[in-house]
Design a protein that fits this description.
Layout lengths: L4 E9 L3 E5 L6 E7 L5 E4 L7 E5 L3 E8 L4 E2 L1 H11 L3 H7 L4 E2 L2 H10 L6 H8 L3 H12 L3 H17 L5 H7 L5 H12 L3 H5 L3 H7 L6
Antiparallel strand pairs: 1-6, 2-5, 3-4, 3-6, 7-8
Helix pairs in contact: 3-4, 6-8
């Protein structure tokens, strides 16, 4: 059985702040602790673009990041955690009962994150039709093959920017028709142009840690 957890993380905030979360194809199980309030658990959605999150003062968060493409029995997992007041280590022990990654989904996403230039090419490499791949991924991930292809490409292109490669060369290498085409994709996913994103070193860690198309 594939272990669905790709990383464990924690954060601690003394003052109020905001944080830009780049789309990474992953969902997280999150425990939030805030002074004077009861602990809360939640499962994050699969983001389609960058989200700006508010981080409360005097708060802590702990999370389990799941691999791209998992299916989650969200209600069952959260009900068990709250009913039995599970601790973090106890939650980790039960996650596999509620979070699953189909081997076929894992293979399909790996193919779409490789050097394929289209969904049709990915489907051909997988030995299935484009329509079958479309139905399969929507059923298991609630996202189309095009979503995964575009997300993987833009994340790889964004990482390349931090290697000081000229933007036009990055666009050409990752299959964009021109620099303007890549800029439109960056604005869609990251709310930033390639030039502006390159100047924000805070994004480097996000793009190089656990997530889709690494």
């Amino acid at each position: 059985m594939t272990i669905p957890i790709s990383a464990k993380w924690s954060s601690n905030s003394v003052t109020f702040s905001t944080f830009d979360l780049l789309p990474d194809g992953c969902r997280d199980l999150i425990l939030k602790l805030h002074k004077g309030q009861a602990p809360t658990w939640q499962v994050s959605p699969l983001f389609n673009q960058t989200e700006t999150l508010d981080i409360l003062a005097e708060s802590q968060s702990f999370g389990f990041r799941f691999k791209p493409g998992v299916s989650i029995d969200e209600a069952g997992l959260l009900d068990l955690i709250c009913r039995d007041n599970l601790y973090l280590d106890e939650v980790e022990d039960v996650i596999a009962n509620f979070v699953h990654l189909d081997i076929g989904v894992e293979e399909a996403l790996a193919c779409l994150a490789s050097n394929v230039s289209s969904v049709a090419m990915a489907a051909s490499r997988l030995g299935i039709s484009s329509r079958t791949l479309q139905r399969y991924l929507i059923r298991h991930t609630d996202r189309s093959p095009s979503y995964w292809l575009r997300l993987g490409r833009v994340r790889k292109a964004a990482r390349a920017l931090f290697d000081s490669v000229p933007i036009i060369e990055v666009a050409d290498h990752y299959g964009y028709s021109d620099q303007a085409d890549m800029s439109r994709e960056f604005n869609h996913w990251f709310n930033n142009s390639p030039a502006k994103l390159r100047l924000n070193s805070d994004y480097t860690d996000q793009l190089n840690t656990s997530g889709y198309a690494l």
